[in-house]
# Entry
Amino acid sequence: MLLCEIGNTNIHFYKKGANWRKKANIKNISQIEEKFYYINVNEQLKPKLQNLSNAVDLEPFIQIDTAYKGLGIDRIAACKAVDEGVIVDAGSAITVDIMAGGLHLGGYIMPGLFALQECFGSISPKLDMPINPNTPLDLLPQNSLEAISYGAVKPVILMLKESQKDKKLYFTGGDGKFFAKFFDNAIYDGSLIFKGMLNAIQEKGIA
Amino acid sequence: MLLCEIGNTNIHFYKKGANWRKKANIKNISQIEEKFYYINVNEQLKPKLQNLSNAVDLEPFIQIDTAYKGLGIDRIAACKAVDEGVIVDAGSAITVDIMAGGLHLGGYIMPGLFALQECFGSISPKLDMPINPNTPLDLLPQNSLEAISYGAVKPVILMLKESQKDKKLYFTGGDGKFFAKFFDNAIYDGSLIFKGMLNAIQEKGIA
# Structure
């Protein structure tokens, strides 16, 4: 069974435990010959996907208990994979969602590291430089590069520590592996969203 | 005695305890008839200022003990006003500097609230909305507006609490008053940079 998570930049594929990605464009969608199950946040590709006879939109079948209005389908799918814990999808944005007893308690959004780097550059040309994610966080910065890197990475870690309490952290997304290493009781799972999609498929008996 | 702090957007003026601001442009510099003492981070206005016979650049006269390379003159001036404490200048960027026993121990930089708002908008059109700084921080967000507002404001507060320990917080800058209200042992002083300039003038006996 082929699963696809379609974003604005990339399409992530999952089949039999393996995952890979391609650029998000119509060609890479049209090329797929077998039946596939997808979630999609890419508005541009939406009409194309709806016209494909081999594509099944999972969005109507993935539900979680939440009071949150407008939760993205990618966040819903990741939450569907975890009954108890803090889910962190660290990509262009860092989304954080709290699950307890199968309920979604809420969540928040911080800019991702690359977005923060662009943000510093927009504030001043003197801050327009690549962040060093490996800057020491236990020493006070002594130059601009250390100062913006510390000011980008450490707030995320403090927020996640505050959210974690005695819960397990589930990291996914491009910077997920990087952030996971700062925590005990944490795992990185690049297939978290797909596991949620599989859970929904099984629950609804639709495959 | 007239003091001016010249930034990229505004010129802040200080005289006899009062402070006010004007747009940062050549006209608002040329209009000044009396002798004035300034610090300047605006590269465009630099040559003009150097040609004025009534303008005294204080930058060479404001020194602090620090190992930090490239500390901006506005941050140096604010530090010159405080021997012991955490100095937070919350403007387009939020700069944080730690002083202990008259020594500058280091500091870091986070994006300001407006820059973060722009940053969210650049990540996704769905996050392109004005941050609500008064969003509750003790409840988990339940929609996108709450999620980005929480994710913008709370990290700053956690970072400052971590930096504060038993020290006093000195807030200045456009959002300084807003952030100060979250802390005990904290003051807002919109004239902090000017106080540092006055300290340097007195120390060097140059006025």
In short: The mean pLDDT of chain A is 96. The radius of gyration of chain A is 18 Å. Residues 144-164 of chain A form the longest helix (21 residues).
